[in-house]
Amino acid sequence: MRDQGPGIPEYAETKVFEKFYSLARPNSNKKSTGLGLSFVKEIAELHHGRVSLKNAAGGGALATLSLPLADDRAAA
Asked: Which of 3, 9, 41, 72 is most exposed by smallest CB count within 10 Å?
């Protein structure tokens, strides 16, 4: 998923998945709890997946969630 916002400041790129880390929202300067992305990362890892968030070429941020395909033998 890609947004059209200002992107992620360079100083925050390595911190966005840390619990309680939050950036001020551009329109309101309010911060969130800083838990959402840490929960997403934890759940992705529990399912042997991964999540990333980086600046997109041309502006905005690009979020990617990758999960492995189900093993047909495990479903049987």
From this structure: 72
Checking if the pLDDT of 75 tops 80, the result is no
Q: If DSSP codes are grouped into helix, strand and coil, which group holds residue 72? A: helix
Q: What size, in residues, is the chain?
A: 76
pTM, rounded to two decimals: 0.77
Spatial CA neighbour of 41 closest among 70, 21, 11, 25: 21
Q: What is the largest CA-CA distance in the chain?
A: 50
* Residue partners of 9: CB distance under 8 A and separation at least 6: 23
Picking from 19, 23, 20, the residue whose alpha carbon sits closest to that of residue 9 is 23
Q: What's the CA gap between 22 and 45, in Å, rounded?
A: 21
